[in-house]
Amino acid sequence: EVQLVETGGSLVQPGKSLKLTCATSGFTFSNAWMHWVRQSPEKQLEWVAQIKAKSNNYATYYAESVKGRFTISRDDSKSSVYLQMNSLKEEDTAIYYCTRNNYFDYWGQGVMVTVSS
Amino acid sequence: DVVLTQTPSILSATIGQSVSISCRSSQSLLDSDGNTYLYWFLQRPGQSPQRLIYLVSNLGSGVPNRFSGSGSGTDFTLKISGVEAEDLGVYYCMQATHAPWTFGGGTKLELK
To answer: Is residue A36 pLDDT above 90, yes or no?
Structure first.
């Protein structure tokens, strides 16, 4: 059974950092391209970042709204993908989901990140 | 960025009624590889999005066949042939042809 479990969400102050983890199981993670998608309090979904597999040199892509502040990475030995979020802004407040690139077939349950002073 | 416009924003239906949701794109979603990367998701209250349809018209695994997708280019439709109670929630279309991937604003399906 495919599972994606996000952890690491929290309440943080603007300007601070936070790292999210998406632990996966039930599929060959090393071959999978992975994404982070977030959902604002207004329920709008926004794609955040993508990381490809080793065979694609772990290429990464970002939404303009997070470029230079967020970093997506992966550890194939742990079947996990990460999202390092720096210089957080109040508009980064959202539920963060990880999902895999197999036509976006599986999503995690999401983790809440609140950026507020 | 590609803008996806969903209509209606709210859809009221009775159980057993057939309904349709429209998703219109600001540019063609036909990729150079011949595929059209248009998806439909359902998000039930308190849950994460669940994929229903991929590549315009392909039914996801385990998705009831009362759901169907159609369209091409810039105009796409999700149809539910006989709404059931478990179908209530918010429906989103998404495109993955043109980076960055973008989502429609959502259509809330509620009971009349």
So the answer is: yes
Whole-angstrom Cα distance, residue B106 to residue A44?
8
DSSP state of A25: E
For chain A, the residue count is 117
Nearest residue, CB atoms, A109 vs list B48, B94, B99 = B48
Residue A73's DSSP bridge partners are: A82
Looking at the partner chain, which of B48, B51, B94 has a beta carbon nearest the beta carbon of A105? B51
Instruction: Say if the Cβ atoms of B106 and A61 lie within 8 Å.
Output: no
Residue B99 with chain A: CB contacts under 8 Å: 61
Q: How far is the CA of B24 from the CAs of A39, A89, B91, in angstroms?
A: 21, 31, 14
Q: Using the structure block, give the residue that is written with the tokens 């996966």.
A: A24
- The dihedral over CA atoms of A15, A21, A22, A26, expressed in degrees to the nearest 10, equals 170
Mean pLDDT of B61-74: 97
Please answer whether residues B63 and B41 qualify as being in contact, where contact means their C-beta atoms are separated by less than 8 angstroms. Answer: no
Output the six-digit token pair for B11.
């859809």
Token code pair at residue B91: 């429906």
Residue B106 distance to chain A (closest CA, Å): 8
pLDDT above 90 for A112 = yes
Chain B residues lying within 8 Å of A46, measured CB to CB:
103
Both structure tokens of B82: 């006989």
- Digit-coded pLDDT (tens) for B76-92: 999 999 999 999 999 99
